[in-house]
Amino acid sequence: AQEGTSVELEDYVSQLSTADQCLALSRLDEAEETQVLEALKAEDAAELISHLPEVEAARMLGLLDTSTAAAIVQEMPSDEQADVLGDLSDAQAEAILDELPREEAAAVRELSSYDDDEAGGMMVREMLRFSDQMSVRDVIQDLSDHGEDYSDFDVRYAYVCDSDDRLVGVLPMQNLLFVKRAERLADLMIVNPISVQAKASLDDLVELFDAHNYLAVPVVDEEGKLQGIVHREAVDYEETRAIESDYLKSQGIVGGEELRTMPLWLRAKRRLSWLSINVFLNIGAAAVIAYFQDTLQAVIALAVFLPIISDMSGCSGNQAVAVSMRELSLGLVRPTEMLRVWWQEVSVGLINGAALGLLVAILAVLFNGNPYLGIVVGIALFTNTIIAVSIGGVVPLLLKRFGFDPAVASGPLLTTVTDMCGFFLVLGLATMMLSKLI
Amino acid sequence: AQEGTSVELEDYVSQLSTADQCLALSRLDEAEETQVLEALKAEDAAELISHLPEVEAARMLGLLDTSTAAAIVQEMPSDEQADVLGDLSDAQAEAILDELPREEAAAVRELSSYDDDEAGGMMVREMLRFSDQMSVRDVIQDLSDHGEDYSDFDVRYAYVCDSDDRLVGVLPMQNLLFVKRAERLADLMIVNPISVQAKASLDDLVELFDAHNYLAVPVVDEEGKLQGIVHREAVDYEETRAIESDYLKSQGIVGGEELRTMPLWLRAKRRLSWLSINVFLNIGAAAVIAYFQDTLQAVIALAVFLPIISDMSGCSGNQAVAVSMRELSLGLVRPTEMLRVWWQEVSVGLINGAALGLLVAILAVLFNGNPYLGIVVGIALFTNTIIAVSIGGVVPLLLKRFGFDPAVASGPLLTTVTDMCGFFLVLGLATMMLSKLI
């Protein structure tokens, strides 16, 4: 980064699109990152930081002195405040909270007590909230008094509370265009509005927004007191995160998102912890080969086909895993419907197993001219394809049913079992037909 | 499904949540599906169908007679109309279009000419649209005359056009609360509003909604005439679909989404086309083993470690692929930054390769007591881990840069190369040290 006054820097940064700002920021070293964030207005720094992945946002806030960090946090929407402080160390988060106005700190502390994927963790306090005793005139006065404060809110709906802060109604703001200014909100509002508890899960919220064309839903506590609102956008965001996280976990990135700007040791350690588990799972498959060493030594051509059997079965099984994960996330299959899924996979496995088995059998005969080698590898791949799609289809349902995360565990489980079965089939059949193969 | 009058059926269906309705519908045979959709009001059937995956929605519409299907399509938002008709055969789509009111059919035909992930394919025509010559009084009169028609719209903003239908301004509806009813929209609206062309890409829209806190953006043609609006929600939806589709493609589900309710032959054919390519890629790895047959026969213990080397390298490489895919989608890395990514992966590869190589070397020595076997497999896995993470990290960038789809091709390319290199390293080293291994 060039030397320059903070005004020049600010001008330069503000010319870039938000995406380019994020890219540029991630290319700086820590001293430069600090310099940029300190030079920006707290408001602009908050805007920039809220476009970064949360772990990155937390890391950068951690670089700043407490009062600068607090000034930036204060400009963020309340749900993001809680998320980003949750990714800091407790000491850092507390230091920043101490610098915030007392009321705001208390609000953030409360939001932080919820998980990111609960209604409480997704809700914001920025909303239009009026007493049911107010008149339309009072509301219009309030809107023009606080126009600036409300400018970031979604003002399509206002939420109406009684004198005990209990949510009693929702008011579509455009209705105010058609009514007399003396009317009271209690007479205009939609009563018994749909609301959710702060502990409502992401699945509940996805279903609610699927069923209703709402932009936001109010959150209440056990006594019906209004706590905040959850925007449809926040739910979509968490849903996307869940899908992305499933993809990363299925590829062996577990224990949280990895970005290449993170410390090397953390990246290596996280990846290694998953890889080490896989080494031990692999021993199962290796043991099968060790058991049949004599057969393999006698018919070394078999060794040429072992990786094909292993890889093709893994591929077929992964396809079935992907379809099960997709159907689970669409709600098109229940975790209990294992028999149904198994049968649907076996049908595909019979067709594809026959096609692949025949193909590999032909390759084997072309390779060394012995038709029995073709028979052994063909039958093994045919059978193992059916096993692989059965396991791939059913295992995600089984894991989900018993409360495990299907995205993390399905792949390694599948590979272990299909490799063991595949090697057992090839080498077991070869042992039975040994006289024909030599 | 039980026999029953359509009223009973309707009552029963309407009790279920939308998610349960979708699940229940997907469990019926085609005759029963037809019966349910015909029994429901067109409006309710449209609501139900729009919650299904598009391929399912299209299949179900295809079962109905043309006039029932057209009545349901007429109740859907305009972007979904185009999407679902796009998934029907041309003949079926034309038959349904012929039953729609002429103007609506023309609108759907035009929307269908855009891809799902272009602004034109995501836009809806349902919006508040006024002339700049209208007064606030005219608008309020129009709103109360058409309240019913507008009930599904997002009425936070109105779009203001001149007499040539060109977009000239945007009007936040709540501002109407604070102004005199005689004022003209031309004097109230925000002029020079941000708009996009109908051909704007999903990436453009994602960036726009990232940078601006809008709920919707207007779409104009080359002459600046207002065509429709794209809701943030539609962009989020397409973004989620793109991520899901990347996940499915990375697991070998290519050529479109697969649901187990689809015809068996289609499911088997699509999966098989991807698997067959993999068989031929596998021949590369098999050829390496074939080349070193004599070494393998002499030291059969090597065969026990080949699948471990192959699987572990594949796992390490997949982790790198996942991080690259994620950083590409977050815009945190550009496709040209291959050297940077390569170096970041090599650092992880050195650490994890050393750890895994040592672990497997120990296992090898425990297995047959020969330290040279440990040296061969340890060095091979160490080296191949570095190769695997290098390829895994760089290949997605390379594919993206040259216009290929990294989600489809990264996995198979990675596996092929890491298997070939892994087998070559183990067996090549063993050949060099053959006298120590026997």
Task: Describe the fold and architecture.
2 copies of one chain form a homodimer. Chain A has 438 residues and is of the alpha/beta class. Chain A has 3 domains: 6-113, MgtE N-terminal fold, CATH 1.25.60.10; 128-247, Roll (CBS-domain); 264-437, Tetracycline Repressor, domain 2. Helix content of chain A is 67%, strand content 7%. Chain A is built from 22 helices and 7 strands. A 4-stranded mixed β-sheet of chain A has the order 1-2-3-4. In chain A, strands 5-6-7 form a 3-stranded mixed β-sheet. In chain A, a hairpin with a 5-residue loop joins strand 6 and strand 7. The first copy, chain A, is elongated, with a radius of gyration of 30 Å. Chain A starts with 5 loop residues before the first helix and ends with a helix. Chains A and B meet through helix 2, helix 11, helix 14, helix 15 and helix 16 of A and helix 2, helix 11, helix 14, helix 15 and helix 16 of B.
